């Protein structure tokens, strides 16, 4: 079939392909800025910084090469550039680059370094291998599943945990800020798969009336800090969950397939009283949404498919899981985070 001449003359398709083909430039330029701690250097300077001052604050760098990197980072709005007729251009921070500051409460640097690490990028080159539904791209790339891989690579496990902790801080901040009413009437709360308890500790401090327990596998709890605000319990969520007024699961179910999610949800239901609830904090996909996080949520779905065999779910898919596990109803609340809050009611 001949392509209409109008389509030959329209550069938008070609532009789109070129932009997608080079999108990794954004990703790896951001990683480079993170590794060089450029945001920290500007912050220490106390005001926008010249190229030469910036070069002097790092390892010996080519002024020309650093200029070209910074020019690109300004173009993608990670940093600002201030120009005047009689002074050298100066580079400043933006709301995005402030999230690269290592002292920032919501610092995203650990997540950037993990997501862009060569080992964690490698499975994406095996995306096609994982489309058969029988194996995961991560296994094809690394020769083993992600959890086994992390258990054998302490430095990668540390990187992964630091990235998850950074993501948890972002999420917990939104959860506490946007869901005060949800936690207000809870007398006891169990955080299933709560890791080292960082998130639950923040929740316990914000809602001191609630008795909070972090619940995870024995080796995780053994290595977790003994925070005075929270209790610790170990076990397997597929076998049992400690009783509480409410059960919290943050970014847990997206790691598992539907059958396993139903098993976990049934155990959660057994753990709460008739007037209790299970609080799921996870992505809710909306195909036609204009939400600024929507594309990232779609990215996360492919990420789960590639790395864990799990998935992000639409509301309809969540509904099917919740009712299949025997729950009577649910409600969804959007918060200022990638994830949403799904309150499920057992009876």
TrEMBL record:
Name of the protein in its database record: Uncharacterized protein
The active site consists of 254
One GO biological-process annotation of the entry reads:
methylation
Keyword Magnesium in annotation: no
Query: Which Gene3D superfamilies is this protein grouped with?
Result: Vaccinia Virus protein VP39 (3.40.50.150), Winged helix-like DNA-binding domain superfamily/Winged helix DNA-binding domain (1.10.10.10)
Segments forming domain O-methyltransferase dimerisation: 18-102
Return the PROSITE patterns for the record: SAM_OMT_II
Q: Which UniProt keywords apply?
A: Methyltransferase, S-adenosyl-L-methionine, Transferase
Species this protein is from: Acorus calamus
Q: Which domain of life is it from?
A: Eukaryota
Q: Name one Pfam family in it.
A: Methyltransf_2
GO MF annotation terms: O-methyltransferase activity; protein dimerization activity; S-adenosylmethionine-dependent methyltransferase activity
Q: Where is the O-methyltransferase C-terminal domain?
A: 124-328
Q: Which InterPro entries match?
A: COMT-like, COMT_C, COMT_dimerisation, SAM-dependent_MTases_sf, WH-like_DNA-bd_sf, WH_DNA-bd_sf
